[in-house]
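Title: Prediction job returns without error message
Component: structure pipeline
Severity: low
Priority: P3
Assignee: unassigned

Description:
Job completed but the reporter wants confirmation the result is attached to the right record. Sequence as submitted:
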Amino acid sequence: MITHLGVLQNCAAASRKGLQLRHMGSSRPIESVAIVGAGPAGSALAIRLAGAGFGVTLIERDRFPRQKLCGEFVSPGALPHFAELGVAERIESVGGAAIHETRFYEPGGRSVTVPSAWLGSSSALSISRAQMDLALLERAVEAGVTVFDGAPLTAVSHADGFVESIKVKHEGKEVTVAADLFVDAAGRAKPLTRMVTGAAPPAEKPPYIGFKSHFRPRVSNSGRCEIFLFDGGYAGWSPIENGHANLCFMVRSEVARERGGHAGRIVDELICQNSRAAEMLDGAERVEKWLAVTVSGFGIAELTPALNVFAVGDAGAFIDPFTGSGMLMALEGAETLAGVVKGHQEVNSARQVYRSEFRNRFAGRLRTSAFLRRAAFMPRLAKLAVIAAGSSAGLSEMLARLTRRSGAPLGRL
């Protein structure tokens, strides 16, 4: 459990401030921020805002460290963010694996390679979310952020389109947190957004389901992340700390239902139809339980679900995992929102600027990823794409860079 000594005093002060602001109308200054979700986006945002002098409360449903369904690939462009946030040495000490290239394998074994150098530096990083997220959360505490972990969101108090306070359950007690600005950084579940808007839960039959577990591999693929394309989905396999490897895959929901939602059957019956996957997974010993999550869609979601509620990370936009840029987008999204809040310390102007800057920064790469997704889930097209990209280093590099760049390429697709 991670706690901060000033929790109750800070919350009481924030509550008094919230009462004072209640009658100030639609134009409200931002001095205090409450963030729900302590993944990379939430913790990075908390660190940046605390360093700029804002009063920040960070709320996390789970107790850290905890595993999280994720490809656990940190793109080279994310590494400078770790340095800015003050966690680079801490994360390096965990012993994650340096990734020098990502190789995509079509089912028959043909492949195309994307060097990490195309994405910003000579190596990317593969590290478990349990350790990376813990490092960021510990840094947030050091930065003066008030942290509640093991504290699920239970209620929201709002009026006239503004959220006045939220309630969380922490150590058996209900705690009220008031703030000027609230941020949903709790991933695709978006608990704060759903409570504020009254939105229904995701569809019972979402189009995709993701699975993840850690393994002790028999065959080493040091320095390389490998993507296995197969009928109905794709899988990512990469080394992490402690000599383990992470297997994360996404399949069409009907594919999972046909196999009773059993991850092991999907691995044996589908993923291992890819000859390279069969080679790498042969004899690998699973060392963690399977995690599973439904995926209802991709792209930009509602960025400002209420007048003083913003969304960031996967709650704001979800990019296809095979691009390996999810955690980069989380850190860049936090950087974008922090810059907007610091530059526009008033709710109305910040809301409008945030929507504009977020879309300008991420819409292009999301369109590119949507285009590539079509190939990833169609085996014949995937094979042709691998062959075409493998025959042209220029094409491969262009597509790789487009999953990181700002702007709006492939806008008509």
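Comment from assignee: result matches the submitted record. The chain is about 35% helix and 25% strand.
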